[in-house]
Each structure stands twice: as structure tokens, then as C-alpha cells.
Amino acid sequence: MSFKEFEFIELLSKLLPKGRGVEVGVGDDAAVVKAGKTRLAVSTDALVEGTHFLKEWKRLVPELYRLLGRKLLSVSASDLASTGAKPLFATVTVGAPELSEELIELYVGLSERAQELKTSVVGGDTVKSGQLFLELTLIGKVERPMLRSKAKPGQLVAVSGTLGDAYGGLKQLLNGEVREPKLIERFLNPTARVKEGLSLAKLGVECATDVSDGFLFNLKTVADSSKVAIKVEEELIPVSESLVNLLGREGARRAALFGGEDYELITTFEPELKEKVESLGFTVVGTVEEGKGVFLNGKEVKGEGFDHFKE
Amino acid sequence: MSFKEFEFIELLSKLLPKGRGVEVGVGDDAAVVKAGKTRLAVSTDALVEGTHFLKEWKRLVPELYRLLGRKLLSVSASDLASTGAKPLFATVTVGAPELSEELIELYVGLSERAQELKTSVVGGDTVKSGQLFLELTLIGKVERPMLRSKAKPGQLVAVSGTLGDAYGGLKQLLNGEVREPKLIERFLNPTARVKEGLSLAKLGVECATDVSDGFLFNLKTVADSSKVAIKVEEELIPVSESLVNLLGREGARRAALFGGEDYELITTFEPELKEKVESLGFTVVGTVEEGKGVFLNGKEVKGEGFDHFKE
User: Is A21 within 8 Å of chain B by CB?
Assistant: First the structure.
């Protein structure tokens, strides 16, 4: 018997009861809990050799492990960003066949990124494992958490940065050739939009999520959990020149819609905030309406994304 | 090039700078950090197939995965216990080849244990991995943290429960036979001494650690970090009847001194607290004195322990 990932998460969220102090449990980008008078946001992510990265990539990208160390923190920081939280403390677990120079490179990258994000790595565990895996749990502070379930009809939908770049980077790594190095950088060293997330929360924005599983897929989690319809215009979706160079116009289009791991933010907000949100580097791509589902150029799309367990 | 685990941790603790709000970073049982006005204790631990457990054990112990789910939480809870912290929230990461029934059993065990410890599992990540690994990060609240570096000359040394049982359990599993099931239970389902840790802290005790790597080894971490000598009398060390049945008197003695994963507490405290500490289930086994090193029956011992990376 095998479960699909989302069914599995739903089953778990029933199995694991929501206790005292838990404001947002399993299901959103980050958990939100109250400890004493402090509201914390907590997120955890893992990178596994063979699933999220391949050792061979070091041939193409000599600084692979340093970038993976950076990415390990950025991925969780992105979850905190979309919650409007400020990262503070991280713990790290590394499973590895041996304590090698490459692990040191990884920690150097992690340490760099931690300093950039003013986050302290306060503990961790190093264990022996045949397969290399990296896990990081990030704890931050949040005043008013943004949730994916707070989209409201009448709002605008916007996204930060450009979409599909990480897919373009991954594709080059899998093909074993570097044609557009910027895209590889975007895949291995994503920008977590922490500043942007904090600025959105400060503007009073209540709904955000990050693009981890693919733009349309993550839009669908917003539409479903908010019980609204989301309509986006494809021509408005921001795509980089590098991605078009690599994949052509049609390939770039598909990467932007379905590619995962961009770690950009999706947000919905009242129309009067449009200019302020745009000035943070967001592009308006659509609207929230009554109803349900995600619509692309007026046509309903089925949720597709990046499910590591799918065949 | 390969590093020994403790050298590696020392290198990391230099690499990863201690930032604002960090009261205790890498190196003690749990990190202690300040978020707003709340003082948090954070600990993280991992269990890896092939290193910490073998799939084959299910033949001997049908409820293996349920117990591993319990152990995953207990191991981190033990770190919080020795810090005098109250566990509140956990995140869990599971890496697995597929989403199986056994993973559900694991989460059932984790959920049971979480309810016993009034801890909420608030989030996590499920990722594809050829090798099964489990990681848990536990966040708790602490008023005055107990540290392993706070032993003072003139104090008594005590330990909770009995020592060596987990080694007796592991030995049976590795030999493929069940002779003393209680010991297997002690290995797969250790008691985290959370209540005892909180009671010690309430008595004003300042020094504790848990027996994760072996009694003598963990005593040495207390002696070294506190810059004191610790003298213990072997005949005072509490050993269970089951362990003597399994290993004989001499085998039980060695298991109690060197065996890891007992997750009992070691504490040092002023002599006037003796009766109160004993009433919590602790046995006084020695004294703290000026000097350095660990002495067994008056003879200095070298630190030995359970290092997963040692050949």
C-alpha cells in the first residue's frame, strides 16, 4: 500500500492532534505557535541526495555543497517569508557516510546564508547515513501571520521575481550542461523573499504562500484553502530572459506554470495596495473572485505540481 | 580526509557564529535562546535505518515502527529534560522510499508519545529517500536552564533509573533473540525523564546532562566543561536485575559504564538536596571535586563512548 503525499499529509494532520498554543498546525507553509507571550513561526525542510540533488553535479558546479548549504536555509526561510515571519534560530541535522571536506563546505554556505539572514544556527545532530541528507528547522517571530487560506474575492494576485528559473537550472544540471548559469544559481541558491514577506505583513496583507511545488499548484492551494476562485492572465506572468533563451517562449511558459522550487512569493491583497506591493518587486498577474478553482486565461486548470512521490 | 565527530562539532561551533538571543549554542544537550521575552530550549535528533535501527528487527518486535515513533520524540525530550525545559512543540521530517503502512505506525507511536508529553507536532516534511531516516526538532520553554558546565566541587553526583539496559536491549536485537524483553523496551522506548528534569530545576539544581553516549563518556563531558574532577564508586551505580540476567555481573557492569542510549539523567547538586533528589528516583553515585578527569573507584578513566563515526 502506498499513499499519495497530500493524502498522507491529510491523514497525519488528523492523527497528530492540534494542542494548546498551536495557532496554525500541519498544512500551511509554516506552523504558528504561541510560547509564553511570543508568537513563533516554525518550518522544517530536507534536501536528500538522489531526490533533491546529485553528487555528480559537482563536476558542473564546483561550489555545489556551499550552495546546498545556502539552499537548505533559504528553503525554510521562504516558508517563514510567506508567513510574514522574521527568522531567528535554526537547528541542522546532517546524515552522511563520513565527515568530509564537502560537509565543511556545506556548513560554510549555511553559515554565510545564516549571517545574511541574521539567523543563528544553535544546534543540530550529525549522524551516519549511507545516503547524504540535510534537514533544517527554522524558528522565527511573527506578529500577524499571513496564511494561504486568507484570499478574498475582489483582491488582486501578485507574484515576486520571475517564475520557472529553478526548473531551467535543474534541467541543465540533469542534462549535464551549463548554458544559462544564472538559472542554475536560481535553482541551487534561491532567494528567500524574507524582506518582501515582512513588508507585505507590515502593509496589512493577510494572504501569501511560496512557489515551492509549481505556480499553478501553489495557486490551487490558495484557492482551495480560501474557498475562492483565482483567475490569472498568462501573459502577465513574469519570465526571465535567460529562461526564454534556454527553453524558448513555449518551454519558458510551461516552466513558469509548472516548475517547482522557485521560492518566490504569491500574495493576494486589496486593490488599493497595488502600487505599494508592486514597489516591493511583485507583478500583478490576476484576481481573486467568488467560486472555486484556478483559471488561466479564463479556462479552468487542474492542479499539477511537483510531487516527489508521484510515479 | 575524515574528521572525528567531536572535532567536527568543535569546528562547526566555531564556523557557526553565536548570534543575538543565543544563550547556549551548539555543544550542550539543548540550545537555549531568547525569542521576545520567552526563553526557549531547542533540541534536534535523528534516527537512521542501518545506523540506529534495522528493518529486520520487526521480526523480533512486531511493533518496531510504533516504538521508533515514540523513541524519536523521547530522545529529544531527554535533551530538554536535562536542560530543565518543558517540551511544547515538535516538527518531524521523514525520509522514506515510499509512503507505507509502517510510516503510519511510526506516526501513531509519535502521536501517542506526544500526547503523553503534552507536546504538539506542528509541522514537518516528508521526502523521498532510499534509506529511511527520521528527524525531530523539539521546542520547549525553560526558566533557568541546567547546563553540563555547572558542576561545582563539593557537590554530589546522581543518576536516574538504571544504566546499561539499552545496551542489553540492542545486544539482543543484534543477536536476533529475545531473552529479556524489558531491556528491548528500554532501548526502543526509552523514558525521557522530563518530570524529573523539571523537578530538579525547581529545586535550584544547575547541572544536568543525559546518558546518551555512555555513562562515563557523558560524565566526562560534565567534568571537562565544568573544569572539575568527578569521582564515582562503581558499586553504587544502579543496574537492573534483567541486565544482570542477560549479561552476568561483569557484562552488566561494562554495559552500565559504556553503553549508550539509556537517556537517564546525570545531575550534580549541593549535599543538602540529597534526600529530595533521591526521592525523585535518583541514586547518588559519587562526588564532584577540585581537579579534572573522571575517577572510578579512585582510578582515573579515559573517556570512552558511543561514537557512530568511530571505526
Answer: yes
Least confident of A49-58, A262-271, A299-308: A299-308
Cross-strand partners of B39: B34
For A226, the 3-state DSSP assignment is helix
- CB-based burial label for B62 (10 Å; 0-12, 13-18, 19+): exposed
Share in percent of chain B as helix, strand, coil (round to 5): 40, 30, 30
DSSP strand pairing (A265-269 vs A207-210)? antiparallel
Closest CA to B226 of B136, B288, B163, B135: B288
CA distances from residue A122 to A77, A111, B30, B158, B222 in whole angstroms, order as listed:
16, 11, 9, 28, 20
Mark which residues 133-152 of A lie under 8 Å from B by CB.
Answer: 133, 135, 137, 139, 141
In whole angstroms, what is the distance from residue B273 CA to residue B279 CA?
10
- Spell out the residues 6+ positions from residue B8 whose beta carbon is closer than 8 angstroms to its own: A99, A103, A126
- pLDDT tens figures, A160-203: 999 999 999 999 999 999 999 999 999 999 999 999 999 999 99
Could you give the residue ranges of the DSSP H alpha helices within chain A? 5-15, 57-60, 64-83, 101-116, 165-175, 181-188, 194-202, 215-226, 241-258, 274-278
> How far is the alpha carbon of B143 from chain A, nearest alpha carbon, in Å?
11
Is residue B177 classed exposed, middle or buried when 0-12, 13-18 and 19+ CB atoms within 10 A define those classes? exposed
User: Using CB atoms within 10 A of its CB, is residue A2 exposed (0-12), middle (13-18) or buried (19+)?
Assistant: exposed
Asked if A221 and A82 count as a contact pair (C-beta separation under 8 A), the reply is no
Residue A29 banded pLDDT, cuts 50, 70, 90: confident
CB < 8 Å to B66, chain A: none
Question: Which pTM was predicted?
Answer: 0.92
Amino acid identity, position A244: V
Model confidence over B247-261: pLDDT tens digits? Answer: 999 999 999 999 999
CB-based contact B37 A36, cutoff 8 Å: yes
Indicate the burial class of A15 (C-beta count within 10 angstroms; 0-12, 13-18, 19 or more). middle
Interface touch B46/A18, C-beta < 8 Å:
no
Give φ, ψ of B126 to 5 degrees.
Answer: -120, 120
pLDDT tops 90 at residue A11: no
Contacts of B128 in chain A (CB under 8 A): 48, 51, 308-309
Locate cell 523539571: which residue? B198
* Vertex B302 angle, CA B297 and B306, to 5°: 110
pLDDT at residue number B308: 39
What whole-number distance in Å separates Cα of residue B157 and Cα of residue B283? 8
Could you count the other beta carbons within 10 Å of the beta carbon of residue B289?
17
Q: What ipTM describes this predicted complex?
A: 0.89
